[in-house]
Specification:
By secondary structure, the protein is α/β, with parallel strands linked by helices. Helix content is about 30%, strand content about 20%.
Amino acid sequence: MRARTAPMVIGHRGAPGYRPEHTRGSYELALQLRADAVEPDIVATKDGVLVLRHENEISGTTDVAGHPEFADRRTTKEIDGVALTGWFTEDFTWDELSTLRARERIPALRQNSSTFDGHYPLLRLRDLLELIERAGEAPGRSPGLVAELKHATYFEAAGLPLDELLLAEFAEAGWSDRPGVVVESFERTVLGQLHARGFRGRRVYLLEGAGAPADRVAALGSSAPGYDSDLTLRGLYALGSAAASPGDRVDGISVETSQVLSSGSVSVALFGEDDAAEVGAVTSDLVDLAHSAGLAVFCWTLRPENGMLPPEFRTGGPEAEWGDWRRFFSILLHSGVDGVFADHPDLAVSVRDGL
């Protein structure tokens, strides 16, 4: 049985509970709030620049709709089987995207963050790498990077292979051999391609509770096995098995909080404390099975707002009001997971460290 250690707190897109996601302000704040690592979502521009956006469709997170010079770029595309209408990063050069300003993605829930709308330009991956390096100059600080490649099969078909672009970016920034780098994706194929290109950091497979990965659907059509096949005992051992080829094997999985939670109650000892605290129960099956298969386990996303919490943790107030987030965070942080993604990294750190 592996030793129980305090999980890593990862600033999910920076600290989007306080600043618009994927902006300099969001990442700088996450690092100031003692996140152990930060997590960017990575998409590409027409000229092969890696930019940080939750999706390649950017109408909900930028002011692109207010730029008349880009009105003719609005279009409808099918992304991983879903028809979307808007503006897409791969139809812009970086110079064009750099004229845009970021907006809060969910302003109804995060009105304070939305007061920063229009304040920050978009950010490239190389800009974030520089921020992390500067934060690491502080005594006792060595923040990590957990980078998510978005829509890898789609971008490869568009002539923008994210694995190749990412490793070229790492090489240019001197990050090729940097310890603690994690790359994650909902598509296992691109993780294997990274290994084939020489990436030796950790590779984490993102798993949703429903649906099938886009790379499998592209290869097998409607008969493609879903994510649920990866979450069986056989599937987990196939992901982490030493018998699997290095390209097929991954170092960990990352799942939704709903896949970790269960009902009931249990007493657990807080990290570094001898006394037990009643925080609720979790299902240990998935975490324990994944660990037995040699896989690290991460979960997403810890958020305090009523509108973002499971029903049993809501307080009955407005959706933007914070609910019983301490209990929710504590359950997940004591579930045995190796890391959590948090929109308010300071809240997760405070619960984990018993502050």
